[in-house]
Write a structure and sequence with these properties.
It is a single chain. The protein is α/β, with parallel strands linked by helices and about 200 residues long. About 40% of the residues lie in helices and about 20% in strands. Strands 1, 2, 3, 4, 5 and 8 form a six-stranded parallel sheet that branches. Strands 6-7 form a two-stranded antiparallel ribbon. α4 (about 80-85) links the parallel β2 and β3 (about 100-105). The radius of gyration is 17 Å and the shape is globular.
Length: about 200
């Protein structure tokens, strides 16, 4: 069974995909699994040179038109692997990039990690972080009998809508054809990033 972090990343990605499709835009999604890159990230921190697979992951994140960054919460903050990945990216690489931040944890008491850890990290990188961050505690997932379980899908859709709107705003302007009809480009990429 996938981790709750992967489930949250997948649900956010699907909601963004659906909302952009409703607006007539198709997206290509690339999932970056940091767990698979842990040794490469550590080696890059020591040597300053990325492996081929780490270079591909960095390219996927920095070339994307939007980013969904999901991390499990450890000790009231993002995971060390998550932070290490952003330590190997150039400080200017995410400037102006729309980012949706999300996190998972065992208790709702750690939800402020999104505001005191993730939002400042992406602000430092000069990314444009959507207003709604999504935190999913164990009790937010269906099947536990909690009456508040129904709020997670609404929060996912609201945050995905904000990211979708930013991605549409930052898309290339429509080209004009001879009959003055707008032709909207469909080349948008979304990278969903998550460590486990």
């Amino acid at each position: 069974m996938p981790s709750s972090t992967r489930l949250l990343a997948d649900r956010l990605t699907e909601s963004v995909r659906e909302q952009l499709a409703d607006a007539g835009r198709e997206i290509e999604v690339q999932i970056v699994e940091l767990r698979d890159l842990a040794a490469d990230i550590a080696n890059n921190l020591v040597t300053g040179f990325p492996s081929a697979s780490l270079a591909q992951a960095i390219e996927a994140v920095t070339a994307a038109d939007g980013l969904i960054a999901v991390t499990p919460v450890f000790s009231a903050s993002y995971s060390g692997l998550f932070k290490s990945f952003f330590d190997v990216i150039d400080n200017d690489a995410l400037t102006g990039k729309p980012v949706l931040t999300a996190a998972t944890g065992g208790t709702p008491r750690h939800s402020l990690a999104l505001e005191h850890a993730l939002r400042p990290l992406f602000a430092y990188l000069r990314a444009v972080v959507v207003p709604t961050a999504v935190y999913a505690a164990s009790e937010d997932w269906p099947g536990n009998g909690d009456p508040l379980t129904g709020t997670l899908p609404r929060r996912i859709d609201r945050a995905a809508g904000e990211l979708s709107a930013l991605m549409r705003q930052q898309a290339a302007p429509a080209a004009r054809t001879p009959d003055d009809t707008a032709v909207v480009p469909f080349a948008q990429q979304l990278a969903a990033l998550r460590p486990v």
